[in-house]
Design a protein that fits this description.
Radius of gyration: 24 Å
Shape: globular
Number of strands: 20
Strand content: 15-25%
Largest sheet: 6 strands, parallel
Helix content: 25-40%
Distance between the termini: 77 Å
Bound molecules: thiamine diphosphate
Structural class: alpha/beta
Number of helices: 23
Amino acid sequence: MPKLTGSEIVVGLLERQGIRIVSGIPGGANLPLYDALSRSGTIRHVLARHEQGAGFIAQGMARVTGTPQVAIATSGPGATNLLTAVADARLDSIPLVCLTGQVPTSMIGTDAFQEVDTYGMTVPVTKHNFLVRRADELLEAIPEAFRLAASGRPGPVVVDLPKDVQLAPVSFDRWPDPGRPDPPAAPDRSALASAARLVDAARRPVLYLGGGAIASGAGEAALALAGKCGMAVTTTLLGLGSIPFDHPRNLGMLGMHGPRCANLALAECDLLVVAGARFDDRATGKVSAFCPGAAVVHIDVDPGEIGKIRQASAGVVGDARLALEGLLPLVAAAERREWLDRLAELKGAFPLRMAGADDPTTPYGLLRAAAEILGPDAIVATDVGRHQMWAAQAWPHRKPRRWLTSGGLGTMGFGLPAAIGAALAAPDAPVACVTGDGSLLMNLQELATAAEEGTAVKLLLMNNNSLGMVRQQQELLYGNRIFASDYRVRVDFPAVARALGVAAYDLAGSPDPRALLEEALRAPGAALVHVPVDALENVFPMVPPGAANTDMLVSKEEEEDGNDATCA
Ligand SMILES: Cc1ncc(C[n+]2csc(CCOP(=O)(O)OP(=O)(O)O)c2C)c(N)n1
């Protein structure tokens, strides 16, 4: 009969859970946990420089592996710093288990030093949370946290650990089994039959894949269905990589910065089969104008999503992969040649325009060259802004779990720590982080973590000395009143990177930028590649917030070409 402290039980349970790397920062209220962690033979601790960084490092590992990963913070400011990464995981359905230190149970509610109500604060941004009041409860709570984080629609779980709980000795008979996800929810057969009838009756069907298609591994099933019944496929920002970017059925990303062909095709479809997506407003634009003539089959593992934004003619509750696999034998094979011809026409007339794609000192050119040099197995993380949308458009997304971006919360500062997490989880894969100067400044300190851990994260910094995406909206939608979006001080990013232990390469003024980029990407260890970008360089197409997806703003050049959106 083992007798261990609460902290030793937590560490033992993490080990049994198969956790090999955790990221966090110690403090007074979690020192017993750290003391126990120091004696673990199998768990490596990655010391982040900010708890938000620790949360995103864990997210990076979770997004790449699809399994819950662990971030640790102390009470009070540690927990509040972690909160953004937790909320981000909630909105993007990422499995995370966060362990926070708490003041001793006898002091809870007294405004003790570094006390915040972590339980109360995290209720709205977690899938579930625990305040553990007795050490023996850990034997149930920790495996349950892992089960909940990974089951059904994944998400973050916070376990708040008062200091006395960490220190209390407990005798117990045997270790509990590790927490495993529930088996994926099998879709209802009659719902699938209704969905199949709608597919058979449609003349212009489109399959719309979101993050749930990545989480469930639905890509192959999606392509099989699209191939059998003449469907085009579009993906959300989080669905990128579920099918290869160059697959003939792939229209590209829908929504605010998607290619025009995708948004125009959606406006013409008469059936939308939505799998693992939730009609986010950045994807749909003005909801009342989104696919106005389409019936909807909505497949989602979370019943709360069905009918939430858009009424579904058929709702299928279940795992996206299982649902698409179940639908496949029920639908009639159909070529739908007229629809495919129309899609080809739209794709030909309104492709994504990538100015400067052959020049590695332009945003599109940098992305294309880096993707080519890093190869098809590369993982790419992004921050939030124009650079993120350029990357969504131009990166050749080939496989799932290789595109890490903050979609729902849109958190600047996500990219670097998420990329570090990716490199820790997949040490053999090349890892890039596409970032902007505004975003990088939000978690810049994690460059030191990257250097310390020897992670070969390659930062592609598009530096426009401005909050570019905000500036763009001010220019286009607020009468060009540029306010609080241009920086007055120019940061010497290569010097800062070097000061934090990371090699830096500046493409500015380089006689052979492509060769320098290649040198940076092939060198061992982390590197920052600095690429100056004009603050006036906007990302197009763009659907103004609240407008219909068919009302896209395009670049001046495209406007001058006079492309008529009806094209027929
Ligand atoms: C934490 C956070 N604060 C503010 C915003 C609002 N915001 C969205 S994009 C953006 C500008 C991003 O600038 P930068 O990272 O330099 O990228 P760029 O758009 O210039 O490529 C801002 C301020 C945000 N998304 N996240």
